[in-house]
Amino acid sequence: MKGIMKYLYRDEKTRNAAALTLSFVLPVTVMLCLFVIRGIFPFGDRSFLFSDMYHQYMPFFSEFLHKIKAGEGLSYSFNVGIGSNFLALYVYYLASPLNWLAFLFPEAYLMEFMSYLVVVKIGLCGLTSFWYLQKHFQTKDWGVLLFSCFYAMSGFVAAYNWNIMWLDCIVLLPLIVLGLEKLVKEGKCTLYCVSLALSIFTNFYISIMICIFLVLYFLALLLTEKRSWKIIGNFVLYSLLAGGMAAILLVPEVYALLETDFGDMNFPDTLTSYFSVLDMLARHCMCVTTERGLEHWPNLYCGVAVFMLLPMYALNQRISIRKRFANLALAGIFLLSFSTNMLDFIWHGMNYPDSLPARQSFIYILLVLTMCYEAYKRVDEIEEKQILYGYLAAAAFLLCCEKFIDSEDFDIGIEILTLTFVTIYAVLLYLHRTRKSFLWKQILAFAALVTVIAESSINMASTSLGTTGRTAYLGQQADYRALYQWTRQQEEGFYRLEKFSRKTKNDGTLAGYPTASVFSSTMNSYVMDLYKRLGMRHSKVYYSFDGATLFSSALLNVKYMFGESEKFENEAFSLAEQSGDIFLYECTYTLPFGYVAPSGYDLPEGFSGDGIRLQNQMVKDLGIEEDLFTEADTEASGDNVRITAKESGIYYAMLTAFGTSKAELIGGSLETHTFSDLKDGSILYLGYLQEGDSVTLTNRDDEDESPKISAQGYLCHTDVLEQALEVLCRQQLEWVEYDSRNINAGLSLKEAGRLILSVPYEDGWRVRINGREVEPALFGGTLMAFDLEAGEYSISLYYTPEGTWAGVCLTILSVCVFGALAIRGYAKGRKMKHAKQEKA
């Protein structure tokens, strides 16, 4: 490789600049070609929205742009769930400084900005890994380019390239590792501290794994390099300073995560192995299906030459035995971490990942590629037969895989393809070792580059780049926004809007209206607990309005519903407006933003997993004797449940045992409807049924080996509901004003009661009533409530994310200390340079 460029570019600096440029351009070119093949806009109507990019990043990015353009700041948002700490969400998902470039593009092309930003970051992965390998080995060899391509288009990148919040850390890792090596070998700490601080700033979660690795790699460097207390002190000091400089975002994020289910750290009691080492190493093969689910498989692919080069590295006696031992031991620790539950738990920040396994595998890939490049670099120092031994070791391993691995992800086609490319590399390496002429070197270099590009392109094309329809995703957003603006013209005040069916749990965030659903790792877990008790959809990372009854919907201040047809109109939902194919319904039964219940009113204890009985009791606690819900005729038969209406009205069903996560409704006013994310106790809206009508619920869970569904039907008595809401509406807030972090309201109470606000409490809220700061009570363990006597009240609420000022102070202190150390080091360096000049 170096010979070609030496021929084309006579100047060494120009050659090196060309090499750096190619390390960026080659991965970008491959990705752009794949975009064209996939028909990704503007080359077609497909979009590179996959997994969380579809469900989370696009909605959150939209809200981020809206807040900044509106001058709202990043503290809080009412468009994320029923109200969320937006700073925590920003830090977790959007903190990359590159995201601010979105303001240079029209908002209509936000999707394309995100998609092509992924391409740019993949190119940057190639550039930084190229830079690292050159500096680590102190070489200008263009063979580095081959290995930087594999880092940029590794199995980790193929699996998670849509996960834009992680890619900055993948880009920065080579710089951080280079910085640590400079700290240990040269006593230079700036690159290490700045790059690590930037990594923590952009994504603290992936940085946890990087920090764990840095401790291990530092110990390995102490084994192979000079050791002193000063080096250890510098490592500790500059690591702490890096964290301190990112504290402005890190500290508020830590406080926010303590409010989530991820704040519970339950270390596993027993050691469990997920799979064998052979099964795991086989995932280095080409075109192995990437794992994004819950099966724990790591995505390890980084070029199939590793099967040959790693044995050559391990057996090369010209490499220090300490260095070989340290690096191979580190690789072994990674493999153990991928396959055992306890180490897996530690690496992922004292939590198990909710899908997307082995998130630290990109670090392992950089380590492996570094060892492989050293084996390649030293090929002229070994005998030809060692290349043959490496090839035979690779072939033997692949034969063992074919014999012993029984997996859908690994078949004979993958083995043949992998062995073919390993054979090509073996031939090229052998010829490189034995042919010394200039012409042969150029031919082999070109052939190697073409082979690497072909291999990485084939793997990326077969394992990555899932797409979705661009028009299908964005086509109706203008209608949702127009209908929301129509509601704002009808009335002021605060209210929420929801949907009968949804694309994502962040639809409200995407379209920019207050909602009651969210899918986010930073969500308030206390809201999830409330939804769970009410029979609504929930998990560790989301809560959803699906499963709400007319009563729970009213408690959450939902005033309008979106639907994609006219079939939802009934006594509970009246058609109010239409835009395109989207229909807006006004809820007949709703409550205001703040309503007054009897003093001490709360969700009753007990009723676990039975939201219907719970809501019946809540209505009775308001002084109403009748049940809100009564049972309907229900017949179960295996994978079907038939519910028949005794009288006309709104009907629901509740799952009474966990037998399916997905069900289909057939019949009634909804005609057909699919329910997903079901659990024991989930409530299903069946629509309006006429007396004598029947509907059928059918199990549609493809993964359920014994299809069955167990549910009970219920009729909602709207006359009882009206009585309950009348009690709660007798006294309510007289006026409400709000913005992104402030709520001001007035209340006149004729009698004592409990004011309930449909806003979840978080530690960042500060509440003043008549000028005096008070601590709110919690309704349902979640919503802010205040027990008040009769009288006139002025209420103000102000939100600042917990830990904000502590983070600001820590960042300022850390920057000052780092600056002082940098100035001191610069002055010391100049003094030493001056002393040398005088001596000379």
UniProtKB/TrEMBL annotation:
Sorted UniProt keywords: Membrane, Transmembrane, Transmembrane helix
Keyword Membrane annotated: yes
Protein name per the record: YfhO family protein
Species annotation: Candidatus Acetatifactor stercoripullorum
Residues in the signal sequence: none
InterPro entries: Uncharacterised_YfhO
Residues passing through the membrane, by range: 20-41, 113-133, 142-162, 204-223, 235-258, 298-316, 328-347, 412-431, 443-461, 805-827
Key word Ribonucleoprotein present: no
